[in-house]
Amino acid sequence: MEDEENIEEELLLVESQLNGLQDKIKTLLDQQEELYERQAQLKAMLEISKTSRDASNSAPSVALEDWSGKFSWDSQADDTRFNVFGISSYRSNQREIINSIMSGKDVLVIMAAGGGKSLCYQLPAVLRDGITLVVSPLLSLIQDQVMGLAALGIPAHMLTSTTNKEIEKFIYKALEKGEGELKILYVTPEKISKSKRFMSKLEKCHHAGRLSLVAIDEAHCCSQWGHDFRPDYKNLGILKIQFPSVPMIALTATATSKVQMDLIEMLHIPRSVKFVSTVNRPNLFYRVYEKSSVGKVVIDEIANFISESYPNNESGIVYCFSRKECEQVCRPYNTEMLSFQLFAGHMI
Ligand SMILES: Nc1ncnc2c1ncn2[C@@H]1O[C@H](COP(=O)(O)OP(=O)(O)OP(=O)(O)O)[C@@H](O)[C@H]1O
């Protein structure tokens, strides 16, 4: 009896020591994983730093290769452009940009608003095996893009604060295990800088060779010299450090030379091929009128201007400072000749 008690006592002691050891082993394994991760980051940083030194000692980053030549993916790209995107021909620089991305280069694109930047990464995203990650600053822009891609039959999703749990699970499975159909994943920059869980799934996706391209939309947001600096964009440099072999395309409509240099440095893409298209839009122009000091007269003038300039039932937009002003402009002019609809942040 006494023997049994002693054995039980010792058993409890051994079990408690084992539990203690297991905790220590888990802590050590976690430490080991963190160190491996840091080791990989440091090696990549060293590599990038050497490449960047070599690049600044040699040629500028502007394209020397002929990106409009023939490439093995030409016919597949033409087929996808026409049959998936419904676009009959490329606009200026689109083909060259797509070819350089398909060749595995990092690319910087400066192209006017509405110039067709999205196709430059969406088409390679469809052509390349795996998942393309797109970082974009605004939820509304992202929603718009995802809806547009879904309408074309391209499997695209967004992972943002508004994504429901089921879709989030689907996305994580696609990243981690390659399950389900996902070609293009949109995230906000906050996801990259704030979600360790997301970054770890992305790491697994990359490790399995399934991260095909990284696109940074509105890339000028990286630079404090730009007009729209977003602090979370500053952390996007981590993407090139973690995934040095994955091509990156950075796109913007406006970037001065200083902003361009800044974002090349911040995104760690010193050897990027740069494409600059004209930002001049001849169909857009300003005209300044002196306005009356009487509110009603101003509204009359707006209505007259619209009726005279656009007599054929065309559509246009009148911007006001407030919702109240929008109502003041709309109310008297919903006549047979003119029809105003109010838009104030949301449709009324
Ligand atoms: N080669 C093309 N031919 C005809 N239409 C095109 C072509 N490329 C793009 N488009 C269309 O032009 C429109 C604008 O394209 P997109 O939204 O990609 O512009 P963007 O450069 O991203 O503009 P923003 O800077 O405002 O986001 C879209 O409707 C797109 O389908």
TrEMBL record:
One of its GO terms (cellular component) is mediator complex. GO terms for molecular function: 3'-5' DNA helicase activity; ATP binding; DNA binding; four-way junction helicase activity; hydrolase activity; metal ion binding. It catalyses: ATP + H2O = ADP + phosphate + H(+); Couples ATP hydrolysis with the unwinding of duplex DNA by translocating in the 3'-5' direction. Its cofactor is Mg(2+); Mn(2+). This is DNA 3'-5' helicase. Gene3D superfamilies: P-loop containing nucleotide triphosphate hydrolases. Its main location: nucleus. GO terms for biological process: double-strand break repair via homologous recombination. SMART domains: DEXDc (SM00487). Belongs to the helicase family. RecQ subfamily. It comes from the Eukaryota. Residues 98-273 form the Helicase ATP-binding domain. PANTHER family: ATP-DEPENDENT DNA HELICASE Q1, DNA HELICASE RECQ FAMILY MEMBER. It comes from Triticum turgidum subsp. durum. Its EC number is 5.6.2.4. Residues 4-38 form a coiled coil. Pfam families: DEAD (PF00270). It is found in: Nucleus. Keywords: ATP-binding, Coiled coil, DNA-binding, Helicase, Hydrolase, Isomerase, Metal-binding, Nucleotide-binding, Nucleus. SUPFAM superfamilies: P-loop containing nucleoside triphosphate hydrolases. CDD domains: DEXHc_RecQ1.
